[in-house]
Design goal:
The longest helix is centred in the N-terminal third of the chain and has 21 residues. With 404 residues, the protein is of the alpha/beta class. The chain is built from 14 helices and 17 strands. Bound molecules: pyridoxal-5'-phosphate. Keywords: Lyase, Pyridoxal phosphate, Transferase.
Length: 404
């Protein structure tokens, strides 16, 4: 069991007051808070070893390079990638997906098909649409049901030898649905298609095993797993990363440059042009160490209780409807109250210290599916408590009274 008070003491921001009230932070789906060890890792880098990496022969440059590459190794073992060079540092999920779509521009032909799911975040829709415009490939959508679950029979029917790549999130940011990605990966491979998993909402709750999953690409952001903003990871199978052309040209990603011809560096440097977010990459490794110390079993246990308790308490409120009722679901509750705009609730409860997300959560097609302007989304992390849920429920009830 988690010692919740000890865990909370690791996060300095959680003792803050907001609008004169104790902060209740339920916007973890947008970004998580950072423990002191991660904050310290960033300042320690700048105070003690700041230098550019992979370049200088001087001591600081070597220390910085070692710290950065050690962090890559931590992430490799965390996700169980076969090689460290299959783990690319990015600025986040969005960057990782764009790197892959850019590479596929060199592969796709007119009439090829890309399957995307109805549950995606805009950053896993728009780059694929741009890719279709560039190549003449066709985007097809895997539909979902009223519970917010993807319909596997429809997925099976959409797959064909025209399918070149499938892209789907592991867990939906808007509804919390956990998708059957192992099934989807195996099915995609049966027709010879590649598959990308957007793990942005999964890595805060579980430890993905990319070799066991056998996915071709797995992307996530650092800032949703207690790490710094502007950091992220693209895992890609070696064969795919060798096949795809580089994304950005510049320093670090080359072997030799002349005005006649440039040859590219080996993986992972081929995809890591320019000076990266060195402090961030190092601190991301610290964040992953921290999460593992807390333990993913403990994290899941705590979040499961919060989901169960939060669902029960919120449903006490008259006229409240939860969107996303999948059997497999993570600690996200998206809801609306009859006759009240989500934004109005969000604004009032913010005054009471409760931070939730309101709006379309960068997933407008989901809102269109349910025919709503948006939802109020409470997303819980392992450092949240039932007492905080009680505060939110009281605040929502108060807002409901004021608005009706
Ligand atoms: C947050 C999120 C993204 C985008 O991540 P960035 O860190 O903004 O690049 C993509 N997909 C899902 C499912 C997300 O939750």
């Amino acid at each position: 069991m988690l010692d919740i008070n000890k865990i909370r003491a690791d996060f300095p921001i959680l003792t803050q007051k907001v609008n004169g009230k104790p902060l209740v932070y339920f916007d973890n789906g947008a970004t998580s808070q950072k423990p002191q060890v991660v904050i310290d890792a960033i300042s320690k880098y700048y105070q003690e070893i700041n230098a550019n990496i992979h370049r200088g022969v001087h001591t600081l440059s070597q220390l910085a390079t070692d710290a950065y590459e050690t962090s890559r190794g931590k992430i490799q073992s965390h996700i169980n990638a076969k090689f460290a060079h299959e783990v690319l540092f990015t600025s986040g999920t969005t960057h990782g997906i764009n790197l892959v779509t850019n590479g596929f521009a060199a592969i796709l032909k007119p009439g090829d098909e890309i399957l995307v799911s109805a549950l995606e975040h805009h950053s896993n829709i728009v780059p694929w649409q741009m890719l279709c415009e560039k190549t003449g490939a066709v985007l097809r959508v895997i539909p979902m049901n009223q519970e917010g679950e993807l319909i596997m029979a429809e997925y099976d029917a959409l797959l064909s030898n025209k399918t070149k790549i499938v892209t789907v999130n592991h867990i939906s940011n808007a509804l919390g649905t956990v998708n059957p990605i192992k099934y989807m990966i195996d099915k995609a491979h049966e027709v010879g298609a590649a598959i990308l998993i957007d793990g942005a909402q999964a890595v805060p709750h579980l430890k993905p095993n990319v070799q066991e999953l056998d996915c071709d690409f797995y992307v996530f952001s650092g800032h949703k797993i207690c790490g710094p903003t502007g950091t992220g990871i693209l895992y890609g199978k070696e064969a795919w990363l060798n096949k795809l052309p580089p994304y950005q040209g510049g320093g670090e990603m080359i072997k030799e440059v002349s005005f006649e011809k440039t040859t590219y560096a080996e993986l992972p440097h081929k995809f890591e042009a320019g000076t990266p977010n060195i402090a961030g990459g190092i601190a991301l490794g610290t964040a992953i160490d921290y999460m593992n110390e807390v333990g993913f079993d403990n994290i899941q246990q705590q979040e499961k209780e919060l989901l169960h308790y939060g669902t029960k308490r919120l449903l006490e409120i008259e006229g409240l409807k939860i969107f996303g009722t999948a059997k497999e679901k993570t600690s996200v509750i998206s809801f609306n109250i009859e006759g009240i705009h989500p934004y109005d609730i969000g604004t009032i409860i913010d005054k009471l210290g409760i931070a939730v997300r309101t709006g379309h959560h960068c997933a407008q097609p989901i809102m269109t599916f349910f025919n709503i302007p948006g939802t109020i989304r409470a997303s819980f992390a392992f450092y949240n408590t039932k007492e905080e849920i009680d505060l939110m429920v009281a605040a929502v009830k108060k807002a409901q009274l004021m608005l009706s």
